[in-house]
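Hey, quick one: can you model this chain's 3D structure?
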Amino acid sequence: MEHLWDKYDRLILKLVRTNKADSEEEAMELPAACILEDTIETLQAIASDHIKTTSSLISEIRRIFSEEEAPITLMTAHRSKGLEADRVFILDWEEHFPHPMAKTPDEKKQEANLQYVAITRAKKTLVFIETPEYWDEVTPPKL
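Sure thing. Here's the predicted structure for all 143 residues.
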């Protein structure tokens, strides 16, 4: 993974050299640098000491997300009615609830019911996730 950190260091220097940032510290706060840093840290979290090649990293990612391991299911709050899971992650709660189109009292009541459905799907752990603003600005880099 060290070569990925070298790539990160080169990106920081390039951002300063091309006047996209006044300092290395400022460059580290730019979206491209934040995304690359997050990506490297994620890969490090997945990769353990026994993973030395790209193919073994890909195999480990496939193992983590296989049907034998607890799969990840993405769905809307509407679709989650009647289902439960040990861990539930709700993305951008404040942005999506209540829906901006809910104007009438009945629509707002339906939204409140849907909020209840969303938060009661978790058997053990409920996590609220807020999308970092910089994800809206650029597309994450591909490694």
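One thing worth noting: The helical segments are 2-17, 24-28, 31-46, 54-64, 93-96, 105-119, 134-137.
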